[in-house]
Amino acid sequence: MPCHSIKEYSALYEESAKNSIYRSVPLLEEEWKIVSDSSGYLPEENSVTVTTGISQLRTRTLEIFEHIHLSDDIRYKKGFILNAGISIWAIDFVPKQAKDHTQYLAIGGYNSTKEHYMIDEDTQTDKRYNVVQLWSFSSSPEQMKQNPKLEMCILHEYGAISDLKWAPFNAYDEKKLGIAAVLFVDGSIRILVVPHPKFMHGQEKTVKETMFLKLEASRLLLNMPKMKASCIAWGGYGRLAYGTTSGSVVVWDILGSLLQDKPKIIASIPRVSQLPIRCISWSSLFNKNLLLTSDLDGNILVHDLSDPFMTYKVFRRRTAFTCISGTGHNSGFLFSEADGMVRRNFGYDTKKSLNLTAHNGHVWAISVSPHHGIMASVSSNGNAMVKMFASDEVELTGRHKNLEYTLYRLMFDNDTQTFRYVDGIKPSVRHFCFLFCL
């Protein structure tokens, strides 16, 4: 695969964002309907108790859709705590250029913590009412005290959401916010061309605090006979890949499908694993052929779409839930271990890796910045951590002492039913060490 420096990869990303291939995809207004009645779709009224602060603690109760300014309790801390009122399974910022300082965040999941479904289980008709929340924030340093706003609620009848990811780069314009792939608990994937809240407000000609938008029809429905999706990953060149509960991998040409209004498959690779695919990732947004997957047996596999039926097994870890992420700019990948450690493997044909972050809990997700050699990971013990894993100036090895930053820790006291937001955690130095995975 072609390798880039971090600076080159960042420049490629910026250029692709300026000349996005999704700009030609139109918004169809008949797919959306502005409604005033949201009963049955929104979560029930609920509240959470949150304690914040470092030296001086403060406890408050947040009702549904309310928020806390972290700067009220922690000096210089820029951020918010939101009560979305749901069990969150999907969260993703809309990719857009910084022409203005408004950023949009999509949140989806289960309407309550009492809902429980098996993966690929179809829900009852009366349980399919659900919502995707779209929040707006100001990223301007001068407007950090500006309140976050629940701009729009997308009401739908497709059930609880397992994952939601926006198409990379951006499809943002005056009419549309972006293009989203939404994975539902029944294993189906729907592609939505989401309208811009300001455009829809202009159509209604009234100003409401929150707009309720009913999804009348999705642009595309991606499904295959006897294949239920378990994870999704956007790639470059208008591609979307997903793993299935039957251990298969499917790659779709989303851009071509949207322009021709007909789903187009690039590759369907059956039975790459005997167990469901746990996680899927592209090695790079600018490599249209190289895919990584992990399954519930702990195998990490590499797939080359130029020869899709020759799956290569890198190694097997002793855990059923392995998160993976391509580095983007270079070869190798990041992966999680059973002990909560995140590591970087240096290549696809080697088993040499470096320790990065240590969570002491199950790692839920790993993400990599396209502009820096920095990774972020979150885990079940409430930790959100970042660490540099690559640099253009020096090749990081086991001898380097690199700072590991804990952005925050969110803990829950079951006795008092109170969340505790912990901040001010000092960076720690964790020695890199080489591991040879067997």
Q: Care to give the gist of this entry?
A:
This protein is mainly beta and 438 residues long. The protein has helices at 6-18, 197-204, 254-260, and strands at residues 32-35, 47-52, 58-63, 67-69, 80-82, 87-93, 102-110, 130-138, 149-156, 161-166, 176-184, 189-195, 211-215, 220-222, 229-234, 239-244, 249-253, 265-269, 277-282, 290-295, 299-304, 312-316, 324-326, 333-336, 341-345, 352-358, 363-368, 374-379, 383-388, 401-413, 418-422, 428-431, 434-436. Strands 2, 3, 27, 28, 29, 30, 31 and 32 form an 8-stranded mixed beta sheet that branches. Strands 1-13-9-8-7-6 form a 6-stranded mixed beta sheet, covered by helices on one side.
Describe the protein in words.
The chain contains three helices and 33 strands. By secondary structure, it is mainly beta. It has a domain at about 25-45 and about 85-225. The strands form seven sheets. Strands 2, 3, 27, 28, 29, 30, 31 and 32 form an eight-stranded mixed sheet that branches. The protein has a six-stranded mixed sheet with strand order 1-13-9-8-7-6, with helices on one face. Strand 27 and strand 28 form a beta hairpin. The model has no long low-confidence stretch (mean pLDDT about 90).
